[in-house]
Every structure is written in structure tokens, then in C-alpha cells.
Amino acid sequence: MSPLRIVLVDDHPIVRAGFKQLLELEPGWQVIAEVGSAQALAAWMLQATCDVLVLDLSLPDGDGLVMLRHLLAQRPELAIVVLTMHDGALYVQDALAAGARGYVTKRSAPDELVDAIRAIGRGEIYLGSDVRNHVAGASAAGGHDQLPELTAREAQVFLLLARGHSVARVAATIGINAKTAYAHRTNIYAKLKLGSDHELRLLASRRGLVALD
């Protein structure tokens, strides 16, 4: 039986080393590469492949949510598990909408990543226990986590703008035309009483969606 080939993408070597050791305790699982940046991942994907990719959303040179969409546009069969500090329902919803098959936070017990990869092997979508609780709470409240004022699409646009993307980049990332993206931004400004993308990023920081430099 062929080994399950796993790639770990995280900019902290000690994190990768710890998870590599954990994952390789599973019979037939092999971590075939450790990658620390978006650029290195792009180069690796040009000349190799894997069965499961464990992806951090916060890399020093790339936005994980954008990378997720790009990777799956190129290789739709690739199983991606998000492993991140972000536990907000908005991040989870966006990652799943982009095609992630698992979502685990770094505050979870390490075994949850093992559980996620096992679930993917059974054809399931896996959410870590803390993520399930957070998403369930947001759904029960009838909102979109920290952005209850917005529709699901507006919240998606808000998050990408807050992470520093231009309107044109937002449109390309989520597959809408620029005119529609500008319309969403206008609606966001009106609903949240914002006057600029700078104010939008400040609001996102206050609501815990992004960390400003």
C-alpha cells in the first residue's frame, strides 16, 4: 500500500517538526516536505505532489486564503487541511467555501490534526472541536461571527480587504467581476459607516479579525 504523502506548510520550524513527529507515528503516513513560505510552496508544487497539504493561513509572504483558492484551482483533487490561529466563523466559512476539507486551530489538541486527516480519508469534512463550537455559536446568533451586519458575501469581501487586498484582487480571488466587488465594498462602507479601507482595517482589528502591523 502506498504511503499517505503529507506536506506541512508553516513558517515556524519548531511547529513543523512537532507535527511531523506526531503524524509519522501513524502507520503508512509520511511527511514528504516541510515548507516555510508561500514562495517555497509554489516552487515545490511545480515539481512534486502530495495527498494532503496542511496549510497555515498566516505566512510571511502570502495570504493563506488566497493560496488555498489558487492551489485548488490548479489541483482540485488536493486535500487541504487548514491549521491556523484563526478560529472565527468567518475564516472557517471562507476556507470551506474555497475548498478546504479540514480546519483545525493551533489551540486544539495535537491529535485533532490526526483526526482531521483520518476524516478526510473517509471522504468527510473535519472541523476541530473549538471551531465547531465557535461556528455553531455564530450560526445560532444568526450572524457571521464578528460581522453580523453583513451578508455572507460582504463578510468575505470585508475579510479580504482587511487583509490588505485591492478590490481587483478580491474580485479575482472569489470569482466575481470588479464592478460587483466595488458594489460590495460600497455596501460594506454604508452598513458599517466606514469612509476608507484604513477605517475598515481598524474595525477588523478591533473585532479580532486581523492583527495590524
From TrEMBL:
Keyword Acyltransferase: no
Domain Response regulatory as annotated: residue spans: 5-121
Alphabetical list of Pfam families matching this protein: GerE, Response_reg
PROSITE patterns: HTH_LUXR_2, RESPONSE_REGULATORY
Alphabetized SUPFAM superfamilies for the sequence: C-terminal effector domain of the bipartite response regulators, CheY-like
Keyword DNA-binding: yes
SMART domains according to UniProt: HTH_LUXR (SM00421), REC (SM00448)
4-aspartylphosphate: residues bearing it: D56
Family annotation (InterPro entries): CheY-like_superfamily (IPR011006), NreC/VraR/RcsB-like_REC (IPR058245), Sig_transdc_resp-reg_C-effctor (IPR016032), Sig_transdc_resp-reg_receiver (IPR001789), Tscrpt_reg_LuxR_C (IPR000792), WalR-like (IPR039420)
Residues in HTH luxR-type domain copies: 143-208
Keyword tags: DNA-binding, Phosphoprotein
Domain of life (superkingdom): Bacteria
Protein name: Response regulator
